[in-house]
Amino acid sequence: MSQTTNQQWGGRFNEPTDAFVARFTASVDFDQRLYKQDIQGSVAHARMLAKVGVLTEDELDAIIRGLGEIRVEIERGEFDWSVELEDVHMNIEAALTKKIGITGKKLHTGRSRNDQVATDIRLYMRDEIDQVLAEISRLQDGLLGLAEQEADTIMPGFTHLQTAQPVTFGHHLLAWFEMLSRDYERFADCRKRVNVMPLGAAALAGTTYPIDRAYTAELLQFDAPAGNSLDAVSDRDFGIEFCAAASVLLMHMTRMSEELVLWTSAQFNFINLPDRFCTGSSIMPQKKNPDVPELVRGKSGRVYGHLMSLLTLMKSQPLAYNKDNQEDKEPLFDAVDTVKGCLRAFGDMVPAIESRKEEMREAARRGFSTATDLADYLVRKGVAFRDAHEIVGLSVAYGIKTGKDLSDMTLEELQQFSDTIEQDVFEVLTLEGSVAARNHIGGTAPDQVRAAVIRGRDLLAARAD
Question: What angle do helix axes 88-100 and 35-51 make, rounded to 10 degrees?
Answer without folding.
Answer: 60
